[in-house]
Amino acid sequence: MNTTRTLTFQWTGWSLGISIVVVLVTAAYCYAAWRRSGYQRTFGLLELLRLLLVIFAAVMFNQPEYIEEFLPDEKPSVVVLWDDSRSMETRDVKNAGQSGDALTTRRDAIAPLTESAAWHKLHERIDVVLQPFSTPESSGSNLYQPLNDVMEKQTNLLGVVFASDGDWNEGPPPVQAATRMRLKEVPIFAVPVGSSIPLPDVELLSLDAPTFGVAGKSVRIPFSINSSLPRDHVATVTMRTSDGEELQKEVNVKAMGRTSDWIIWKPEKIGDYQLTVNVPTHHDESLTDNNELSAPISIREEKLRVLVVESYPRWEYRYLRNALSRDPGVEVSCLLFHPGLSKVGGGNRDYIKEFPDGLDELSKYDVVFLGDVGLDDGQLTVEQCRLLKGLVEHQASGLVFMPGFYGRQFSLLETELDALYPVVLDEAQPGGWGSRTPSHFELTELGRRSLLTKLADTREDNIEVWSGLPGFQWHAPVLRARAGTDVLSVHESETNKNGRVPLLVTRTYGAGKVLFMGTDGAWRWRKGVEDKYHYRFWGQVVRWMAYQRNMAKGESMRLYYSPDQPQIDQTVMFNANVMEKSGEPLTKGDVVARITSPSGKLETVRFVSAGDEWGAFAGRFTTAEPGQHEMVLSCKQTGTTLETSFFVQGVANERAGRPARPEVLDELARVTRGKVIAAGKIDDVMNSLAALPDPPASVRRVQLWSHPIPAACLIALFGVFWVGRKAAGLI
């Protein structure tokens, strides 16, 4: 490093003239004062000090600056940054060396810029550094980071050549790094590559298979197709299972948009399956490697535990009990209070004699149905209502409210269950509303899409089934649905000042789900069709409410997470219930999850205890890769572990076939006062770099006129002058 040092003044003609006049006048005055003193030595020294003070002030008045210039000994450098991400594999660049419509990949189009021999003309004056960024294995493209790293690592930077398609999906906006380069006068020579017009393509965008299903029960496998073709077309989508089963469905794929549909699959055997969905290649599409996706699913033979609590054995209760007891996947327990009678329960083996005692007994139930019961007549207690609330909130169980015309549900609103109730009831009409003529359900738009109300395979058939179901002649006194709830069905004609009366309402509370059924006439759905719709509906209710709770469970640990079908870059909320060896919930402990991503990256998630009586622990994890993630949950205090897995839906952010974004590179060049140069014109890049002047020297300026040290010296001289005059008797 060569260093030169100079002293300069920011003077003008007026400031210099004034300074000279002031110094000359002061010199004349000092001489006259010394002569009057008889040329005494003490007075002479004082007047000389006075003159020095004025000269010092005159020099500072002309703004002196001490300047150091640092010139580097090595040659200036140019960094060639080239994009090596997966999007550069897109074949959409016109090849100048071939005739016809031959296209080449974006990576091949910038290949001449990535070879060291191509820059030999600049080697005498400039050091050229070739540096790729965002490898094909990367999950995304970060254009900000390479530009920022160049600014940090290169000390004698002349310019940057930046070759990319501009498709960035990670990190801060690259223009922020360009702004820093503008301040340091480092231009960017942008080399955009690729077409900004989407290629004709049909892409299977997502396959949202559920985490698990139940043997013998139909499973809906949703998928989404994205098309950039100019016309609609019909495609036969095929789904294959790992055991060789194949299902097909014709889908009308919309032009220049997204199409969502699903395939219904009924697995017969338990086990772990791999589902593969394929969209046939269209003859006009350019990309054929994104038409297939796979996802895992676990098929189980579940034994869901359901508790039904009722007062009188009304018809709704009797048929509900029959539907649940005949379901091979459900183990039902019934509790009848029989108001007015001394005994509790019934004669069937499904009945229990009393409400489950303690947390360890109650926590075994996945779903609880509360019929026309309340706090009166020796039924539920305030403590039992508190336990039911905790079961839903902390252990992801489901709770179904099924009120009756006795109106006992109003007493539940005086307990902690009030926070769970999805609707507001009319206290002026505790017995509800009855009618001579049957009324019917009417699905809302949300209800038409819900799996809970799906009684037919297609949406049109489902609406027809619901409109044709036998009617009911009583409904609960509902005023409106509460905020944060989902209304799936309303009364076909009954209204109040809040609109249609809600009849089927759901909500999420804590980790669990709540359902409100506003009539007691669902048992009538069996008319003429027997169990076809009645059993299907309540079976779907139980499995929907218990789904999250049964994602993964062991003898003393249970894990569930939300959302159950996480996407890339989405935060997954994990909830775990941990029990001690005695069966009691663990109130405090060290619960840790180790998650292994598809690439082999290992991350640790530490769960935080809620510190309550439910053994609830919570943690969070942000997904970064699609695919199967293996997870091991462990507790130090109990010494138990739970091994499970979850699947992250979607495809990587960085993929081939996406349109180029040349406007991003245009902005980088404009901000830094560089240029945009076509990929095939490497000579233009050379000439532009050769025309750049050497980087300016690093300059360090010290403004002496405003620096604290000269100011301190001036003050010190004034102090000496004042002390001298004091000593000479002049003050």
Automatic annotation (TrEMBL):
The name this protein goes by in its record: Glutamine amidotransferase domain-containing protein
UniProtKB keywords: Membrane, Transmembrane, Transmembrane helix
Domain of life: Bacteria
Lineage summary: Bacteria, Pseudomonadati, Planctomycetota, Planctomycetia, Planctomycetales
InterPro entries with a match to the protein in the record: Class_I_gatase-like
Organism whose genome encodes this protein: Symmachiella macrocystis
UniProt KW Membrane keyword: yes
Entry's transmembrane regions: 12-31, 43-61, 704-724
Entries under PANTHER family matching the protein: BLL2462 PROTEIN
